[in-house]
């Protein structure tokens, strides 16, 4: 009877071993696979904050506000591990009771309680950690979103939008497990492994030596393989990133690609990147298979050694049968903490890579003054003065080289000149998107560098050259800069920009969706929408960069009237290549190669400025007498 029972126990033990080993293998392979689809497990290097220890501290810092939940989760996890670790000893009591013929009720009930309690505790701490992880990720994402939206324009100029977006999406997701489950899995794995070793030595020192010796050999082999796996993972992620960058490039200019008949060329370029990702994936599959085999040996070899040697010693009477069974179950149990240790370490490595990338965002300069309160802006129209302003983009020649001029209060001042003369750059400085290298710009006699950016942008409205529209409705775009505008004010700007006819023709009126980047609207409609949005904000100064370049003659005349009306209550600065838009301006500033070439009215410049006369002649705006 006892022999049959022992055989049954051993057979079941072998089955349990197979299940646990497979679970660990699947876990390991999935962990490696997830790493290749996230961002590379970059090793934190460089400054103390981005060194490995610094990254770990930062990682712990993300979870510091949730230390109570994490501490409770850790206690529950350790309690679950203890319940699981006690199960082999309870099984030994059951076998001993069978051998002695004593009552089984106590040992069996104890074993059942340990199994149930261990399972319930595992479910509880998993739920607690997952919930806490979601809170950590939300906190990090909220911080990143706020920071990215406040990045200074020079930082945005040198950063890829897709890469910045990835910091909020995939990188922050890697923190989800790293800040909670990974750390606790490592602690639980170490504690469970140490506990299992103590139990094994309590049961039999000889079998313990065989088990730990075989695991040490496997550990050395894994230590050699892990750096190679990390390099393959990084290579694969770089290739996947190239695929995304190629698609983003092509899809972002889809109309240009199609109009140029370049679909096949773009497909070939992206396919090459995908092929490289496949090759890296092949290398990853090779190492994953190798790791799987080694992990299989890591748990199968100790089991076979213990079974062989322990069976021999049990047959000679130097080892109790119940001790052998308990030891085998302890070996099986070790697969769980070791698996958690491997998974936790890998997940932590992913998290450290994410910390490094998120830290890079935290190092980027942001505009810290855009959220400061601004006093109500009146209807007074201030004068604008530019004093010897110099500015240069990184790695390029001077865009502005000592520019000086004045725009009178309540007037219309136009900036004209060839492309690249510095007109749009000057507007960017007026909005404090950039800071001049020297010189200053004043509004009503006050240096804008002494104002907060919030105040500057509240006082100075801006209509950009490409007149972007945000995905949403026409009304949401109009109210974007002035969410508190009244319906009467909205109706007024619609009439002034001749958008009222368009809105009336549309079935959904103001609720009409403008499409991604406003592509559902024509270029002229987007320009009028941008102008209406700026006028609705009722700024003291209005900057208009090529605001009528895509309008037909009829709508251009209407917009000129709207500009004239705006000039009655604010100072207007216009950039225009189409000189018909600015011939009636109070003052025209001619820029050439970053310098002021001439200033005056249209008639004055026709006589005094060869460059302006050349621009006017090219657009048939020069009277015959002057042209001669």
Automatic annotation (TrEMBL):
The keyword Electron transport does not apply. Residues 384-618 form the ABC transporter domain. Pfam families: ABC_membrane, ABC_tran. Residues 72-350 form the ABC transmembrane type-1 domain. It is found in: Cell membrane. It is a multi-pass membrane protein. Keywords: ATP-binding, Membrane, Nucleotide-binding, Transmembrane, Transmembrane helix. One of its GO terms (molecular function) is ATP binding. The chain crosses the membrane at residues 6-30, 67-86, 106-128, 182-201, 207-226, 287-306. InterPro entries: AAA+_ATPase (IPR003593), ABC1_TM_dom (IPR011527), ABC1_TM_sf (IPR036640), ABC_transporter-like_ATP-bd (IPR003439), ABC_transporter-like_CS (IPR017871), P-loop_NTPase (IPR027417), Type_1_exporter (IPR039421). Coiled coil: none annotated. This is Multidrug resistance ABC transporter ATP-binding/permease protein BmrA. It comes from Kibdelosporangium persicum.
């Amino acid at each position: 009877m006892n022999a049959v029972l022992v055989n049954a126990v051993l057979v079941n033990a072998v089955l349990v071993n197979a299940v646990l080993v497979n679970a660990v293998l699947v876990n390991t392979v999935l962990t490696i696979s997830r790493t290749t689809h996230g961002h590379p497990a970059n090793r934190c290097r460089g400054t103390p904050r981005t060194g490995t220890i610094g990254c770990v501290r930062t990682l712990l810092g993300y979870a510091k506000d949730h230390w109570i939940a994490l501490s409770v989760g850790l206690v529950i996890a350790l309690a679950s591990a203890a319940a699981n670790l006690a199960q082999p000893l309870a099984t030994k009591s059951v076998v001993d009771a069978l051998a002695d013929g004593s009552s089984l009720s106590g040992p069996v009930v104890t074993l059942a309680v340990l199994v149930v309690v261990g399972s319930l505790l595992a479910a509880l701490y998993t739920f607690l950690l997952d919930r806490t992880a979601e809170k950590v990720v939300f906190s990090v994402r909220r911080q990143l979103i706020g920071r990215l939206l406040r990045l200074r324009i020079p930082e945005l100029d040198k950063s890829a939008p897709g890469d910045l977006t990835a910091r909020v999406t995939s990188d922050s997701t890697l923190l989800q497990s790293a800040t909670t489950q990974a750390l606790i899995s490592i602690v639980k794995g170490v504690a469970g492994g140490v506990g299992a070793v103590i139990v094994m030595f309590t049961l039999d020192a000889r079998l313990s030596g065989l088990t730990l010796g075989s695991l040490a050999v496997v550990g050395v082999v894994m230590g050699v393989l892990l750096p190679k796996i990390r390099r393959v993972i990084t290579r694969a992620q770089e290739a996947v990133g190239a695929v995304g960058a190629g698609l983003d490039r092509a899809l972002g200019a889809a109309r240009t690609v199609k109009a140029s008949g370049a679909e096949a060329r773009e497909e070939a370029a992206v396919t090459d990147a995908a092929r490289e990702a496949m090759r890296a994936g092949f290398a990853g599959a090779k190492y994953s298979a190798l790791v799987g085999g080694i992990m299989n040996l890591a748990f199968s070899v100790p089991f076979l050694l213990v079974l062989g040697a322990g069976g021999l010693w049990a047959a000679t009477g130097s080892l109790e049968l119940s001790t052998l069974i308990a030891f085998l179950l302890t070996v099986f149990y070790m697969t769980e903490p070791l698996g958690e240790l491997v998974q936790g370490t890998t997940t932590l490595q992913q998290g450290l890579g994410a910390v490094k990338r998120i830290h890079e965002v935290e190092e980027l300069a942001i505009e810290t003054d855009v959220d400061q309160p601004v006093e109500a802006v009146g209807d007074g129209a201030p004068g604008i003065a530019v004093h010897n302003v110099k500015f240069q983009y990184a790695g390029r020649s001077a865009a502005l080289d000592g520019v000086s001029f004045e725009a009178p209060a309540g007037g219309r001042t136009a900036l004209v000149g060839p492309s690249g003369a510095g007109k749009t750059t000057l507007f960017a400085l007026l909005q404090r998107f950039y800071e001049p290298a020297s010189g200053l710009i004043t509004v009503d006699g006050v240096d804008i560098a002494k104002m907060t950016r919030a105040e500057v942008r509240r006082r100075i409205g801006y209509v950009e050259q490409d007149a972007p529209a945000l995905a949403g409705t026409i009304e949401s775009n109009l109210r974007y800069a002035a969410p508190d505008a009244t319906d009467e004010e909205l109706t007024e700007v619609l009439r002034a920009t001749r958008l009222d006819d368009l809105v009336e023709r549309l079935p959904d009126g103001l609720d009409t969706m403008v499409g991604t980047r406003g592509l559902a609207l024509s270029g002229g409609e987007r320009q009028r929408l941008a102008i209406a949005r700026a006028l609705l904000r009722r700024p003291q100064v209005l900057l208009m960069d090529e605001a009528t370049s895509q309008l037909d003659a009829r709508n251009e005349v209407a917009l000129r009237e709207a500009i004239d009306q705006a000039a009655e209550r604010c100072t207007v600065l216009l950039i225009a290549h189409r000189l018909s838009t600015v011939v009636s301006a109070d003052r025209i500033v001619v820029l050439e190669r970053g310098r002021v070439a001439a200033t005056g009215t249209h008639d004055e410049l026709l006589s005094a400025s060869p460059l302006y006369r050349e621009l006017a002649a090219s657009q048939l705006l020069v009277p015959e007498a002057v042209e001669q």
